[in-house]
Structure formats: structure tokens, C-alpha cells
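Need C-alpha cells for this chain, all 136 residues.
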Amino acid sequence: MADLPDAEPVSAPTAARRTRPRKRFRTAVEARQWRRRVIGYAVTTIAFVLVVNALVGENGYLATMRANRESDELRAQLRHLREENQDIQDRIHRLKTDPAALEEAARRDLRLGKPGETMVVIKDAPKPKAPEGPAK
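Here are the C-alpha cells for all 136 residues:
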């Protein structure tokens, strides 16, 4: 470094002075207050993260509400299917045991009639198609 004309020699005390000295607390009370503040910020941050996780996390409040809503919907579907199943079982039982129900089903579904009866099938007239607007 002495070979350079513009460079000034740097002594050891000057190099140490250029580094930023560590801030020292003036008293023990200030140090304690600083530690309490840092710990308070850390606890507040951790509490905030836990609250957010409890609300929107994988098993949070919103996920629980969504699961409860889906469970209610599935229970309603199950109840409807059980009622429908019971209706079908009742119909099967009537068809097996009641000759009038069997005759009604044969007339309705298979369009069968008794000997000597004339079947008249009335079909609905097809709906006319709506005219489309003029082509432009």
C-alpha cells in the first residue's frame, strides 16, 4: 500500500473505528425493556399465526363449517334415497301381493287390456317449432 501515491496508510486503530460499533444499552433497565419488547413482538406474531391457522387452516374453523355443510347435504340425500327405496319396496310388495296393482301396472306400462276391450292411445300433439327470426 505504500507503493501507491494516493493511498494513505491505514493504521490498526483507524480500521477498528471504521467498523460500526455495537450499540450498547446504557442501563440494565433499558436492556430489560428491549428484551421484553422483542419477546412481546415474538409472542404477538406467534399468536397471530396461530389464530389465522385456526380460522383458515386445513382443520380450521372455516374447513369445519364446510365439512358440516357437506355432511348435512349428504344426510339429506341419504334420507331422500331411503324414502325412495322404501317407496320402491312398497310398490314391489303390492305388485307381488295385490292383483289389482299388477293389473294397473300391466295396463299402464305394457298397454295391455282385458279380452274384449279396445285400447285407444291418445298422444299429445307435437309442439310447433318456434319460427326463427329473419336471417340478416
